[in-house]
Fold this protein.
Amino acid sequence: MKRPEHPLSILIATLTTSARGLTAVRQLTELQKQVPTLYGLLSVNAGALAVTHYGLAPAVLTLGIPGAVIALCLVRAVHWLRLRPETLSEAQAARHLRRTTVLTVFFSVAFVIWAMVLNRFGGPYEQGHVAIFVAVTVIACIFCLTHLPVAAFLVTGIVMGVFLFCCVTSGNNVFLAIAVNTAFVTAVMVRILNTNYRAFVDLVASQAMASELSEENARLAQTDSLTGLPNRRYFFQQLDAAIRSPSDADPPFALAIFDLDRFKPINDTYGHNVGDRVLAEAGRRLAGFASAEVVVTRLGGDEFGVLLRAPDSAAAALTVCDGICTALQQPIWIGDIQVVTGCSGGLALPCRITHDADALFDRADYALYHSKEQRRGATTLFSQEHKDAIRAEQAVETALRTADLAAEMGLHYQPILDTATGRIALVEGLARWTNPSLGSVPPDRFIAAAERCGMIHTVTLLLLRKALADCAQLPPGTGLSFNLSAHDLASPETVLAILAAVQGSGLDPRRLTLELTETALMRDFDHAKAAITTLRSLGIKIALDDFGTGYSSLGYVHRLPLDKIKIDRSFIADIETDRGRSLVSTILDLCRNLGLDGIVEGIETQAQLDVVRRHGSRYVQGYHIGRPMPLADLLRRLERDAVAVRRRA
Ligand code: C2E
Ligand code: CA
Ligand code: CA
């Protein structure tokens, strides 16, 4: 059986309760609900006892002492009623509790001695009243002091000690019986008090634990587990708060988004484990920029969000952002693997019309996209120029949705020369769109717009069907090269529709080459690989377009079943330098070694053509060979070429 606890151990427990979650302030709050009642009760009881002894005992005992003690009780009651525990510090509340305990001793001694002295006056009724006064008052004290057990024990000990002593020494058996009864009842009450108090302490402790847990849960819900940085949810909370809080600073805050360059190829090449460690290191470096003014978060994937509070100026915010890009561009060592990821950023400042977190985020995202496209490794500040570009893009999207695409869109064809035979081996179909209100829209703009507004499937198939139909007019030895969008390969429906269109056209699939860019492959490598395998099984050839402009072209050349590589025209611009020449000849060697056809794009001069031919390039394309032209012009050109070849023969 569990032994009842010694009051001393309860006293110690009381003194240490704050460690278990019970603060002195909380104890005082609970006590405040009972103590004024207790003082009221004491005053009424003492008043009643004084009244029954009035005239029987000296006035000092029935008026003087009770009057003084009752006045003191009332003063204390008022003091307790006016107390506001929540405004007190822990130390102040603890001092208050100690003072209450001391006063309890004082009142206990005063009341019990006064009652025992009064007991000497009056007859049996009055003496009975004294016994009732003592018993009832002690029980009331025990109840009202539940939340200050030390005081309750002291009251019980002092009052019952003196009462028992007086009763035992009085030699009156009735009083002795009353004293023993009362002592027994108070002992039971103390036990109940003890149990209740412990339950109260446990409740407070579990409340404290629950609140700690919910704080921890809230913290975890706002933390990214991989990097330990706050997460997207936290970022948007802070962004909302920054937007809502009025500020005189100009700008009041700045929002930046960073995205690692080349992260996807690192993940694809070295696996997710290395990818995760790269992200964790990137997070660690970013955390070095965090401060009260700079909130650093991971938004997801390889994207990080930074909120700069009250930067001195847009230029100051840009400086911080460029520092972040530079820090993330330093090599990262994962075991013996060294990886170098770049980092680009987009920055947006709030203005009157962007008092909306999503709109502001979109602006920073747009600026980031701009960095990725044109200024890798740096941070771009969203500007008026970007606003105009967005408006223009939206105009293209709107026109795409409403246009009669079948009537307005068509293709021009650019010849690709086989230098070994001197004949046009194939023609590349290039999309053209002339809209009544926008005029002629460049293909890279409307293809991107169609991708954004989910119309690329329609546009690709419309153009492919037209190209396949046009191809029927070409000489049988001339092939067709057609560009696919980055989105096409990722969509199984589009791939199936492409296969159906090719089969339905009656064209020999071996005459068709589909050109893919690295971005198309990067979007979803596994889907892209499966789609390429299906297309090749039909005899369709696959060319990797714009080779050398991405970061991982070589990786794809190795891992994909390709037929051709189109060397981007940016290499040709440098062809007259030693470095440019050796780059092109290295890529051509690579093509030969892998058994792939290399096509050099962007040949604009005879000198360039001579150089690439010297380096063994068989297939060439560019303005010098022929500009993209309508089908009718192409047919005339092919006819002219055929006549020339016949003449030479
Ligand atoms: P691309 O596939 O790299 O196409 C070659 C682009 O280079 C064409 O621009 C062409 O006119 C241009 N070009 C050819 N030779 C020379 C040269 O010697 N010098 C210079 N400076 N440029 C030359 P275009 O027609 O404006 O097409 C731009 C891009 O739009 C294409 O780049 C391609 O990515 C995309 N595109 C065009 N048609 C389609 C299409 O039907 N579908 C898809 N998905 N994308 C298309
Ligand atoms: Ca192309
Ligand atoms: Ca190209």
